[in-house]
Amino acid sequence: MFKAIDIKEQKEIIIIDDQWNKQSIEDLRYSGQNNQLICPECEQPVLVKAGDVKQWHFAHRDTGSCPLRNESEAVLRGRIMLYRWLSKKYPGKVSLEKSISDIDLKRPLDCYIETDKGKKFAYWILDSGFRSHGKIKKQFLGQDISFQIIFISNMIRKGPDDPSTLVLTPTERSFAYRSEYNQLYLSTIDSALTYLDLTTQYLHTFRGLFIIHKPQIFSYKKQLSEPLDKILISPKNGEFVYPGEYEKLKLLKNKYVQKQNNISTEKNTINIKKNKLINHLSFNKNDNRNQSISTDNDLDYLTKTYPCKKCRKHTRKWVKLDLSTNTCICRNCISKS
User: What is the DSSP letter of 55?
Assistant: First the structure.
């Protein structure tokens, strides 16, 4: 473990910080010998182990069942790499060996960040599978924290018949995550996994994972590999982003937005033309209707006198009327005929 609590000063001590050197470490060693340093997890006294061979760390004075007591060397080495790298990205913001009260982990989170914008990122390193992965995954989903699981690269297993495939453990399958960057590799619903190589300090991410043989053989759209120092961090969720991916995704999104705008413009143009046509037809229909109504309502001709075609007398007592000649056939002539 790399973190202890100084009960006298009431502060956290991270022994892998740059402030500790061969001279200053002696004061810390003295504090440990006088039971002033305790484990943040089990609150038992710890001693400073700062020799010339192994990585400086804290060790429990007495045996017990603390989850930080028997951590693997691979996880410890990965934690150092991750902590120092994240500290460059977020100076003074990285917590080490962080416990979350609502999550029952087999050991604390390796690194934890709270950004100035209120975002919470958690990083957990795994060098093997474990049985309660499903239960823990469900607990992750109920938090307002973005979790990033990093597997040690010795867990990468290629398919027996095809080196372009992966054989994934149940734990790997459980923690495979969805990423918006999968879109760059023609994949929107597939998942991704990230591995850390402790020897080369490279990060490897397989994007666009999809199953080809249930339950454990997967193929992938793209394998990305870069030195840890070149990796970027998404400010949205703390996800690992490879050089050039952000720019490519931004360009892809802009193209999508432009396409949607073009579609919207075309729809608006069609709707405008459609509405114009409807209005034109409606106007003509109403105009004809209004003319008909106007003619039907104009009853002045009923009170006028007209000359009869037969007797030539002007009369209002006509039976037939010819408005084209303004003549009529009167009632008397109709009766005679």
Answer: P
